[in-house]
Structures are given as C-alpha cells and as structure tokens.
C-alpha cells in the first residue's frame, strides 16, 4: 500500500463523500417518515414528442402540466392527504407498437393510477390494448370511432367521435350558409389519407348525403403531399360551392394559398388539426381571416381558465391542450370521488359518471358524462372562425361568442 | 456435435428467460420483440447476406403476412396459424412478382426498386379500405385464450413462439448457406457471369432465395400481428420501422452470418428501449439522437458488424491456446 | 387544357425536384456512396432560410446561397470526420452510417429548434400569372427559375472549372486521378459538401410553399431517391431528367387516377422503367 499520508486527504474525502451520499440518499426517507407525506399519484402521460406529431404532443403536454402544477401548488389532492400528482412522461414516438411498449413499461415500472394520451388515434388504440388488459384507465381526446367501439371498459374519451365531427362539419356549414341566405348544393371534400382524415371524411359524406347535397369532388391525398396544385385544379373544375379540407398544417397552408393563386374564393371549412393552430394564421396572415373550421373544443368557452395557458406558454390554448387538461381534471375528480388512487377504484368512479367544474367548463355543455362505452356524450363539435390571431366559436348559436361571417 | 453444445445451451437459456421475467411485464415484451426482429433480420439475411442483394422493401412481405392472417381471422374466423401459412404463400408470391423486374438490377438500384415496391404495398393497403380497414388499421379480435386460436393471456407463450421462429429461420438460413444453394449464391456473388458459365442458373437461384425469404418474413408478420394486437399500414409497411431496421440489425451484427442478425437484434432493440426509457421524457428527440450517435460510433468501430469482434476474439484465443 | 396545365405544373415542380436531388447523384457519382442523410440537408437549408427570413427579413430565395454555405460547411465536416472513415468499408456499412447521420440531424433539429411548424409569408405566395387559360403559380415559377440557374451554374462548374474536371476525373478513376496529382480526399470533401449544399439550396427555394419542421426532409427522401435512380445514379443530367419526369408523372397521374394514388403510379412506372433499363433513363459511368 502507498504512503498513508498522501492517501490521507483522499481517504478523508472518500469517506466524507460516502457518508454524504448516504445521508443524501436517506434524507428523503427520514424527512418523509417525519412528515408522513402522502405518496404521489402516478399519472402516465404518453404523447408523441418526436416525429411528425411532435408539435401536437408537446401542446398536449403543456396543457397537462399547467393543470398538474396548479393542483400541486394548491396543496395536491386533499382527499388523499395532500397527495401530489406525479406526471410520468414518455415519448410515444410515431409507431403504435412502440407506444404500446412504452405503456407497458410505464405500467410495470410504477403503480400507475391512470394513463393520458396519445393524441393520434393509432397510438391511443395501441396503448389502450395494453391498458385494457391491465385494467388501468386511459383518458384520451383522440376521436377515431374505433376507440370507443371495441367494448373496452377502461377507456374514456372526452370528445365526440370522428364521424360525428365530420357530420357536424357539414351540417353546421349548411346552417351557417342558410342563415346568411346562401344555399349549398355542391360541395368538395378533400382529406389526408390518414385515420383522422378518412374518418372525418366519412362523417362529411354522411352529412351531405342526409341533406341531399351533391359531393362533386371527393378526393383523398397522400400524407406529406408537397404539391396540391392537382387538387385545386380539380376543385376549380368541379363547380363546388364550398370545400371541406381535412388536413394538417402543411397541406392546409398549401391548399389555401393555391386556391388564392387560382383565384378560387369559395369558402373553405377546415377539419380541425392544421386549421386551428396559431401557425395557420402565422403562415397565411390576412388570408386566414374568416376561414371556418370545425373543432372539438375551443378556448373561448372558458377564457378565465385558458388565458392562464396563454400567459405561461405564449400562444392560445389549442384544443388538444385544453382537452388533455380536461382529461386530467376529470381524472382528479374521479380520484377524489373514489377517495383512492387505485386504478380499479378510479375506473369505477369514471364509468358512466358525470363531472362538472374546474377545467371541464371548457367543454361544451360545461360537463363531461361518460356512457358505458367510455364516450363523453355531452361533447358537441363546434364551428370556429379566424378573427385576427384568434379563433372564435361561431356555431351552434347557444355557445357562439360571435355571429359567423359567411363569404360566398 | 461439440460445436452444437454451446449453441444448444444458449437456446435453452433463452427459453428459460421468459420464466424469470414478469409475465405481464415490460421486459418480456422487449424480449419477444427482440426475438421477432432477430428472426425477421435472419429472413432478410437470406437475400441480403447470402444473395448479397440489399433489399429495402421487405416490409412489403411482412405487411402482407400480417394483413393476411388478420383479415382471414376477422372475416372468416380462421385461426392465425392457418392464416400464417396463407400469408407465407402470398408473401412468397409477392417476392416472386417483385423479383422478376428487379432481377437485373445492381446494388443500389435493387435497393431502391425494392423500397418502391414496399411503398406500393403500403399505398395499396391504405387505399383498399374494404379489405384492410385502410389507414385506421386493424385490431386483432380478442378470442378466448387457446393455442389453436393463437391467443394467450400472458406474453410468455409469445416469447417462446418467437424463439422457436428464430431457431427455425436460422436453421433454414444455415441449411441454405451450407448447401448447394448457398454455394451457387456465393458463386453469383463472386462473379455472376462466371457463375453462368459454369452452369449456375442465376435467375432460378435468386428467385428461390427471394421467395423463401419473402415467405418466411410474411409468416413472421402473423407473429407480429398477434403480439402487437393492433397495426396499420404505416406500421407494418414502414420503410424506417421495418425495412431499414431489419437490414440495419443484420448489418450491425454481421450480414451473411447466422449469428449476425441475432447479435444485431439483441443490441439494437434493447438499446432503443433503454434510450427511450432514460431520455425520452427529458427532451423531445434526445433518445433518438443518442441512438443515432451510438449507431454511427458502432459502424465506425466495426463496419463489418459485431461478428468480426467475435471472429478476432476467437482468432486471438486460438492463438494463445496453440503453442 | 387540363392536360397542358398538368404538364406545366409537372415541369415546374419537376425542376425543383431536380435541384434537390442533383446533390444526391453528385455524391454517388464521385464517391459511390448513397447518402441517406441527403434529405436532412434539405431540412437544414430550410431552417437556415427560415431564420434568415425571421431575423434578417431576407426572402428565402435570396437566402438560398446562405443555406448552401451552411450546408456546405456542415457537409465538409461530416465527410471528413465520418464518411471518409468508411470509404473502404462494405457499401452497406456506408449506407447505414448515413442513416445514423439522418437520425442525428433530424433529432438534433428537433432538440435545437423544437417541433413547431414554421412557414414564411412572402408577397408572391398567392400570386399567379396567366398564360392564356393556364395558371402559372409564381412561387413555383421562381423556384423553377432558381433551380435552372443553379443547374446551369453546376454544369458550368463541372465542365469549365478545374475543380469540376478534377471531380469528374476522380469519379472516373480515383487511382488515375491521384497519379495525375489530384488530391482525391479533397475532391471527396468538395463533392459531398457541394452535393448537400445544393440540396439545401433547393430547400430554401421551396420554403415559400413548404412548411419546415424537423421531419420535413423525411417527406422528400423517397421522392429524391426515385428521381435520382430513375435518371441514373451518378448522372447529373439524369437527375434533371428524373426530376422533370417525376413531376410530370405525378401531375399527369392525378388526371387519370385518384390523387391518393399518385405515388403508387410513380413507383410502378419507376419499377417498370428499371426493369427495362436497369441503369436508369440516362445511366452513368459508375
């Protein structure tokens, strides 16, 4: 062994370090036992944080974090002894199988009360296969019809179904046009060939059929299309009086701009997604004005709450952020009702139940009521319209904040 | 016989692994997926390694298998085992169809033509909604657990099935490699023109390799469908998620060798999972970034695959043993 | 009439596909490497142009040389530090190294710039010219003109300048080139940097009508490879022909088939062309 003296200081430092580390490791336990703090409530949050849906995933995460922080700062969940909400975040990536594996991992690694996620329907469906088999409640704002159509007992969807949204996209438009004295007889539908686009297009078609309106153009286009000129050429030649595009941001900008280039001024009624995010207005400027879009919720239904989001994150509370916030609010209320953080108890408290108050005021009807399939039957789509840098609810009349402007 | 012993030991140990892991847990799912991808990479290895044709379109056959068995199950209630055989036939057929126009293509041209074919299948699956459910994807229906119905309550049987699949595909690979077909493929690899001269029917041999590879990976598509329970065209016909991934796995491990795909899978898949686990919640994209950096480093370090590490280790060991 | 309009639109957009893809074929032609990360430099070019627009008020088309320069510099480093090390490795290793670079750049962009979609607004975005009954989209026309200018500049560079001739010599026969006193290592660096710079230039040029986000390059990967292989890997003229062909095929297919199938039609044509001409439409020396 080497010289004791030269090791002396190092020896001391090492011992100090070891005991210091031990103290640091033990501290929480010592402090905890002294305070008998309630164990945190683990809520899994699985969202696409990378890949093409990353922006929507991050928006959703922001919404969830806003509420979780508010609840935790206010002292946590009183019914559980002030238990704090512990958000366990994970990236769903863009592959459903990975989302499923991630869900499996989260559930296995800690005692999970519930899972929130995952914006994209395909990811949500994959996660639900895992959560259903493990009896963990999954709360989501994805709206593919299949989500609530499989007889699952542990899934809770806070917004209306895709087919309903699509149908409303048409019906509200017809009503708005009629109120402005215009009659729509020929429409064009164009949509991205993703699950979201296809499902909503189905609803649009059903709505048009029920109203005996002719669909003169009905075209799907590949996701990630870089040139929409053929679409607009076809639109121009179709004689449609209104066009219903269902698309994400890039194509929504392309479609509106190309319509302008070809001097096509028929009204465009968007299908949410790309049409209701701030980047839409940023990209189009004055050309975004008065563009209509269907939406599943809107921040102007509860401005006193949603302004907090704008203050913290710098942009208006997009619907996915609001709806995820509502998911968390509903979950917390269910936990309070069940007086337990155990997954089965919470699920029982959620099933077939109605919730009001708090962030739920941001949903149509001011309440969330789940039926036996897990669908929120009170959620009604709404029509929004761009006014400046904001989107304003314009239909149905009973929740509209402003009268719709119809340009024909 | 003596060489078989360590191999048998590895297989037995891997078979015991699922018993140690939480049967409803996470690591057993990772193990199952790893074994499955190892088998898929091994099936690819037949064409990519032995025939030396880097195909980037194997997802086409994989997706065909997944959809065939699932559609048959949904529409006619046919057991996935039978559906798997049907999928294998269709996959082999599809491989035959694409092999013909791409027969004469060299290296990169072949890779991109096969990639195009994979995309063709993806678009077809996306558009043919009445058959495939379109972009909304398909869910494998829940049936009461039984072996005949390929339905299990726990993940363990899936892991064992994947292991058996890997063993079978590897055995087929080895049989080809050591047999007459392997000899002919090597001849073609060395010098196609010379091979023709000595009487090797290059077209026939390449077609055989393609069909076998396509059929095998299509059957693995059924395994995947039963494990994942839900999939859509973007998942099973994915360029990055399937085609490139299995080629990458084989190459990282050592293309053209039996152990290559296995080494590659056991490196890449757990690595991705660990990265996702550790880093995905910290910052978006961080886990993939680190994965990409590791990938680059590994390729720079061992461009010929991990198997070369073992090769040089064995050489060094044998050097120390012999006097 | 719609037939003519489709051809016109196809040519305009094809010209842009060409300029984006030329870099890819150049890299292959000189170095024999298929650079899977090429489309990521499109993303880089677009981000550079976007930031130039957001902070300097530069129109993206004017910022294109800046995009070129930044991508050139990054490409120089990537080639020197990474690609050069695998030049003697099996080609599959080279391909997958570039796949690794793809992953790094895409996720690096995500980390650095965030996931949000960014687009530019320019005065000419919604303008079009009328050519009789035909519409000519102004952003496409400008993009096409810039691509044409770029293509001519590249052609001049390869033909008339010493560097261009040296690169072609290296592509033809590296050992002979070395014997002639050409520093092939330097040529590889220039070829790679030039190649990715060109793609970045193309990215800036399309920014007026494409929104940029970290994954935007991924949307063009398959298209770029189709263009290059269709025309013949390694042939610059092939990339031009391939680009125009792809644009026109896509535009024409939407007249006869559902728009959803435009890529399907493209790929089937692609496979059939290769079946008949395995070296691509123009083919090349390598």
What does this structure look like?
The complex is a heterotrimer of chains A (408), B (323) and C (286). Chain A has 408 residues and is an alpha/beta fold. Chain A folds into two domains: 41-160 and 301-377, Rossmann fold; 163-295 and 383-395, Response regulator (Rossmann fold, 3-Layer(aba) Sandwich), CATH 3.40.50. Chain A contains twelve helices and 14 strands. In chain A, helix 2 (54-73) crosses helix 11 (319-338) and helix 8 runs parallel beside helix 9. Chain B has 323 residues and is an all-alpha fold. Chain B is 76% helix and 1% strand. In chain B, helix 2 (26-50) runs parallel beside helix 7 (156-178) and helix 3 runs antiparallel to helix 4 (80-102). The longest helix of chain B is centred in the middle third of the chain and has 27 residues, at 202-228. Chain C has 286 residues and is mainly α. In chain C, strand 1 (128-131) and strand 2 form a beta hairpin. In chain C, 62% of the residues are buried. The chains are: A alpha/beta (408), B mainly alpha (323), C mainly alpha (286). Chain A binds chain B through residues 49-50, 54, 57-58, 88-91, 93, 95-98, 100-102, 104-105, 107-109, 121-122, 125-126, 129, 133-134, 144, 146, 150, 193-195, 197-199, 220, 222, and chain B through 22, 24-27, 29-30, 33, 123, 126-127, 129, 134-137, 139, 228-232, 234-235, 238, 241, 273, 276-277, 280-281, 284-285, 287-288.
Please tag this protein with its features.
heterotrimer, A: 408 residues, alpha/beta, Rossmann fold, 5-stranded parallel β-sheet, 12 helices, disordered N terminus, C: 286 residues, mainly alpha, two-stranded antiparallel ribbon, 3% strand, globular
State the helical fraction of chain C.
Answer: over 70%
Count the strands of chain B?
2
Low-pLDDT segments, ≥5 res of chain B = none
Strand line-up across the major sheet of chain C = 1-2
């Amino acid at each position: 062994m080497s010289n004791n003296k030269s090791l002396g200081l190092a020896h001391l430092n090492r011992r100090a370090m070891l005991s210091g580390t031990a103290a640091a490791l033990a501290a929480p336990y010592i402090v905890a036992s002294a305070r008998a703090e309630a164990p945190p409530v683990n809520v899994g949050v699985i969202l696409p944080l990378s890949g093409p849906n990353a922006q929507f995933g991050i928006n959703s995460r922001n919404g969830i974090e806003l509420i979780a922080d508010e609840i935790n700062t206010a002292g946590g969940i009183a019914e559980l002894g002030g238990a704090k909400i512990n958000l366990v975040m994970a990236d769903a990536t863009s592959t459903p199988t990975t989302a499923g594996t991630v869900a499996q991992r989260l559930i296995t690694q800690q005692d999970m009360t519930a899972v929130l996620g995952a914006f994209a329907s395909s990811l949500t469906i994959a996660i639900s296969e895992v959560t259903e088999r493990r009896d963990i409640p999954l709360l989501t704002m994805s709206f593919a019809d299949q989500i609530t159509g499989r007889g699952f007992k542990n899934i809770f969807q806070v917004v209306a179904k895709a087919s309903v949204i699509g149908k409303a996209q048409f019906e509200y438009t017809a009503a708005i046009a009629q109120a402005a004295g215009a009659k729509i007889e020929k429409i064009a539908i164009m949509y991205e060939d993703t699950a979201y686009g296809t499902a909503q297009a189905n609803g649009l078609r059903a709505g048009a059929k029920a109203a005996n309106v002719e669909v003169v153009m009905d075209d799907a286009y590949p996701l990630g299309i870089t040139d929409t000129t053929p679409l607009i050429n076809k639109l121009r030649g179709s004689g449609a009086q209104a066009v219903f595009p269902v698309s994400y941001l890039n194509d929504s900008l392309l479609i509106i701009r190309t319509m302008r280039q070809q001097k096509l001024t028929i009204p465009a009624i968007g299908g949410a997604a790309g049409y209701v995010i701030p980047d839409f207005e940023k990209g189009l400027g004055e050309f975004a004005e008065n563009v209509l879009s269907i939406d599943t919720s809107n921040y102007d239904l509860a401005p006193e709450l949603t302004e907090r989001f704008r203050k913290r994150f710098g942009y208006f509370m997009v619907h996915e952020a609001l709806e995820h916030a509502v998911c968390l609010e509903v979950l917390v209320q269910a936990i309070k009702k069940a007086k337990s953080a155990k997954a089965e108890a919470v699920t029982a408290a959620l099933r077939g139940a109605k919730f009001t108050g708090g962030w739920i005021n941001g949903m149509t009807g001011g309440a969330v009521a789940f039926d036996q399939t897990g669908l929120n039957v009170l959620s009604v789509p709404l029509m929004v319209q761009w006014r400046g840098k904001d989107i304003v609810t314009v239909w149905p009349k009973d929740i509209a904040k402003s009268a719709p402007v119809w340009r024909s | 016989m003596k060489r078989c012993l360590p191999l048998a030991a590895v297989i037995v140990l891997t078979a015991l692994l699922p018993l140690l892991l939480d049967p409803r847990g996470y690591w057993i799912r990772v193990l199952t997926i790893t074994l499955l991808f190892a088998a898929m990479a091994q099936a690819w290895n037949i064409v990519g390694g032995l025939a030396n044709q880097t195909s980037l379109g194997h997802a086409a056959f994989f997706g065909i298998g997944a959809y065939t068995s699932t559609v048959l199950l949904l529409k006619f209630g046919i057991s996935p085992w039978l559906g798997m055989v049907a999928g294998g036939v269709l996959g082999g057929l599809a491989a035959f169809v694409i092999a013909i126009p791409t027969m004469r293509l060299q290296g990169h041209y072949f890779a991109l033509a096969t990639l195009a074919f994979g995309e063709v299948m993806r678009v077809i699956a996306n558009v043919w909604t009445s058959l495939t459910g379109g972009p909304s994807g398909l869910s494998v229906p829940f049936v009461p657990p039984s072996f005949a119905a390929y339905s299990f309550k726990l993940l363990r049987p899936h892991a064992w099935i994947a292991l058996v699949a890997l063993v079978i595909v590897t055995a087929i690979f080895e049989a080809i490699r050591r047999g007459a077909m392997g000899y002919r493929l090597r001849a073609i690899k060395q010098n196609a023109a010379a091979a023709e001269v000595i009487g090797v029917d290059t077209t026939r041999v390449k077609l055989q390799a393609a069909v076998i590879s396509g059929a095998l990976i299509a059957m693995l598509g059924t395994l995947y469908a039963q494990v994942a329970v839900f999939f859509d065209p973007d998942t099973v016909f994915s360029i990055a998620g399937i085609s490139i991934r299995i080629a990458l796995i084989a190459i990282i491990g050592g293309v053209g060798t039996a152990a290559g795909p296995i080494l590659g899978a056991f490196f890449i898949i757990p690595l991705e999972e660990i990265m996702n686990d550790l880093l995905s919640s910290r910052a978006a994209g961080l886990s993939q970034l680190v994965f990409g950096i590791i990938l680059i480093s590994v390729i720079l370090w061992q461009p010929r695959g991990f198997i070369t590490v073992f090769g040089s280790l064995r050489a060094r060991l044998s050097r120390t043993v012999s006097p | 009439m719609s037939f003519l309009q489709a051809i016109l639109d196809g040519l305009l957009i094809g010209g842009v596909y060409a300029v984006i893809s030329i870099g890819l074929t150049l890299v292959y032609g000189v170095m024999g490497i298929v650079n899977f990360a090429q489309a990521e430099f499109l993303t880089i070019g677009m981000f550079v142009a976007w930031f130039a627009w957001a902070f300097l008020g530069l129109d993206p088309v004017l910022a294109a040389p800046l995009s070129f320069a930044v991508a050139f510099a990054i490409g120089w480093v990537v080639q020197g530090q990474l690609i050069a090390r695998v030049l003697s490795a099996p080609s599959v290793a080279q391909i997958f190294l570039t796949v690794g670079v793809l992953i790094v750049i895409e996720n690096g962009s995500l980390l650095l710039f965030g996931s949000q979609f960014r687009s530019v607004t320019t005065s000419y975005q919604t303008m079009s010219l009328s050519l009789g009954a035909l519409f000519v989209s102004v952003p496409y026309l400008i993009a096409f003109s810039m691509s044409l200018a770029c293509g001519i500049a590249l052609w001049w560079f390869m033909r008339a300048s010493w560097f261009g001739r040296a690169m072609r010599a290296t592509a033809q026969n590296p050992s002979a080139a070395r014997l002639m006193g050409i520093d092939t290592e330097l040529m590889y660096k220039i070829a790679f940097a030039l190649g990715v710079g060109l793609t970045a230039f193309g990215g800036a040029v399309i920014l007026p009508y494409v929104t940029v986000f970290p994954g935007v390059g991924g949307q063009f990967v398959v298209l770029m490879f189709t263009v290059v292989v269709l025309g013949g890997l390694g042939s610059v003229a092939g990339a031009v022909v391939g680009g125009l062909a792809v644009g026109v095929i896509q535009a024409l297919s939407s007249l006869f088939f559902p728009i959803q199938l435009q890529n399907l039609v493209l790929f089937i044509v692609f496979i059939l062309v290769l079946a008949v001409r395995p070296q691509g439409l123009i083919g090349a020396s390598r």
